[in-house]
Amino acid sequence: MKAVALTRYLPTYHPESLQDMTLPTPTPGPRDLLVRVEAIAVNPVDTKVRAPKDKIEPEPRILGWDAAGTVVGIGSEVSLFQVGDPVYYAGDITRQGCNSEFQIVDERIVGRKPQSLSPAAAAALPLTTITAWEALFERMGVEMPPRKQRRKSILIIGGAGGVGSMAIQLAAKVAELRIIATASRPESAAWCHEFGAHAVVNHHQDLVSQVHALGFEFVDYVLILNNTDQHAPAAVQLVAPQGSICSIVESTRPVDIAPLKQKSARFCWETMFTRAMFKTDDMIQQHHLLNQVAELIDLGILKTTLNQTLSPINAANVREAHARIESGQTIGKIVLERF
């Protein structure tokens, strides 16, 4: 099969950072699907994994954790899918990724592709959707649907990225929150408004004063999608008593959460690979989550966050997608389609 893979961890501009290869087609295990990959998306995690380091892989490593395709083979214990089913999924960071013609993936973290979307539009969704959903509804405890009470609020730091685009939609359309998103450019601010943000502030300026100027002393939830080191102090100051902060971005120094004690507020992390990585008892929740989102997409409640498409899927185009993400200027998702 065709694949884009690496054996050394090199800068994006290096032609050997990602290479076109021909590799054996994998064989599914008992709970695995064999998927013919039709479209893939690239995320910041791809660039972080590929980042230069002194390590050489004994066998080619395939990156990529967002795909849409068709089931072409199933393991002996598969019960959720059949050959021919169109699917979408983010996969498992401990296994080979989706930058290949065929991939094996555990059925419990796979969803049925939204019928109304092309493979490219669907491939933009899984990783960011799972991340946003788990952060909002499972980590921070946002109610779905909300009870009839005062309308709660959320500050989403980094609203124009892939996760931010989905978090804004879920917060607006499913949780009915008041949404303040952050963006630093007119085009990224417009993107946040398009997806449902009620107000947009600039994360390169003082967040506390900007949120206060909007009439909010506190916000019930803060979702940090960019630079935890920089934004955690503002999040701790702005979160409401008994509120919640969640970050998806690793920190380089300890996060000072001591001020949260008097507020009885909480700070938590979200990593969407946790369930697959540790084979948790509730691993199948990602299957149900993706199916529920597919229904919301097909009902027109949510929409894809696809913004750029490259074709075909080859090393040159995957390197280009990595470079665009590393620029820090991307809005929405970058998808590649067709080998």
Task: Describe the protein's architecture and organization.
The chain has 339 residues and is of the alpha/beta class. It folds into two domains: 2-125 and 274-337, Medium-chain alcohol dehydrogenases, catalytic domain (Quinone Oxidoreductase, Chain A, domain 1); 129-269, Rossmann fold. It has ten helices and 16 strands. The chain has helices at 44-50, 119-123, 126-139, 162-174, 186-195, 207-213, 228-238, 274-278, 285-298, 315-326; strands at 2-9, 19-22, 32-42, 53-62, 67-74, 86-89, 102-106, 110-112, 153-157, 178-182, 199-201, 219-224, 239-247, 266-269, 306-310, 333-337. The strands form three sheets. Strands 3, 5, 6, 7, 8, 15 and 16 form a seven-stranded mixed β-sheet that branches. Strands 11-10-9-12-13-14 form a six-stranded parallel β-sheet, sandwiched between helices. The protein has a three-stranded antiparallel β-sheet with strand order 2-1-4, with helices on one face. β10, α5 (186-195) and β11 (199-201) form a beta-alpha-beta unit. α3 crosses α4. The longest helix has 14 residues, at 126-139. It is globular, with a radius of gyration of 20 Å.
The helical percent reads 25-40%
CATH C-level of the largest domain: Alpha Beta
Main sheet specs:
7 strands, mixed
Cα gyration radius (Å): 20 Å
Question: Could you list the spans in which at least 5 consecutive residues all have pLDDT below 50?
Answer: none
What is the percentage of strand-forming residues?
25-35%
The number of E-state strands comes to 16
In whole angstroms, the N-to-C terminal distance is 10 Å
Q: What form results from the Cα inertia axes? A: globular
Give the count of structural domains.
2
CATH superfamily of the largest domain: Medium-chain alcohol dehydrogenases, catalytic domain
Query: What's the SSE pattern?
Result: EEEHEEEEEHHEHEHEHEHEEHHEHE
Mean pLDDT over the residues: 96
